[in-house]
Specification:
By secondary structure, this protein is mostly beta strands. It has one domain. Helices cover 7% and strands 57% of the residues. It has 1 helix and 12 strands, in the order E-E-E-E-E-E-E-E-E-E-E-H-E. The strands form 3 sheets. The chain has a 5-stranded antiparallel beta sheet with strand order 1-5-6-7-8, with no helix packed on it. The chain has a 4-stranded antiparallel beta sheet with strand order 9-10-11-12. It has a 3-stranded antiparallel beta sheet with strand order 2-3-4, with no helix packed on it. A hairpin with an 8-residue loop joins strand 6 and strand 7.
Length: 152
C-alpha cells in the first residue's frame, strides 16, 4: 500500500462530450487511457495490491461530492462509488492507511468511511449486499472491495 505519484497516475478532464460533465480520463504514465471516472479534481491515488484506489472531487463549492474508484493496473475501472448529499458540502480529509488493504477517511456527515480492498473479486455476504443496495441503489453479488461507514 503506497501513494502513487502524479507521473504514474493522473487525470485529464473530459471536455465537449455530451453527458460526460464532471468526468475525467485516466492518465497512466503520461498516456491518456479510454477509461473515464467521476470527478475533476484528483485528491489522491493509492496503490493497494495491483489496484489503484482513486479519490476524486467535483470542485463544486455548495454541493461537493466524492467519487472513489478502483482500477486495475492497466487503468480499467472495476468499481466506483459516489458519496454526496444535495445542498451539503465538506472536504475530503483524515485519510489514514492501515496496511495491507484498509483505508479510512472523513467526508460529509459520516464520522468515518472505511474501504477494505480485496486481492481478488469475492462473493459478498447477504448483509453486504443489502448495505450496498441501500447506500447506492445497486445490488452486487461480487465485489473487489467493501465500503462501510459510521453515520453520526
Amino acid at each position: 500500500m503506497e501513494f502513487v505519484s502524479l507521473e504514474e497516475f493522473n487525470i485529464a478532464p473530459v471536455v465537449n462530450e455530451k453527458d460526460e460533465a464532471y468526468k475525467s480520463y485516466v492518465v497512466l504514465n503520461r498516456f491518456r487511457t479510454k477509461t473515464k471516472i467521476g470527478g475533476i479534481v484528483l485528491e489522491t491515488c493509492l496503490r493497494i495490491y495491483d489496484y489503484y484506489l482513486v479519490f476524486m472531487t467535483y470542485d463544486c463549492p455548495f454541493e461537493e461530492g466524492l467519487t472513489v474508484s478502483l482500477l486495475d493496473k492497466n487503468g480499467i475501472l472495476l468499481e466506483e462509488e459516489d458519496i454526496f448529499d444535495a445542498t451539503y458540502t465538506d472536504d475530503f480529509s483524515g485519510l489514514e492507511l492501515y496496511p495491507p488493504n484498509i483505508v479510512t477517511f472523513d467526508f460529509l456527515y459520516v464520522d468515518l468511511w472505511k474501504i477494505e480492498v480485496y486481492k481478488t473479486r469475492r462473493f459478498t455476504t447477504f448483509l453486504e449486499k443489502i448495505f450496498v443496495w441501500c447506500k447506492t441503489g445497486k445490488y452486487k453479488t461480487e465485489s473487489y472491495w467493501k465500503v462501510d461507514s459510521n453515520e453520526r
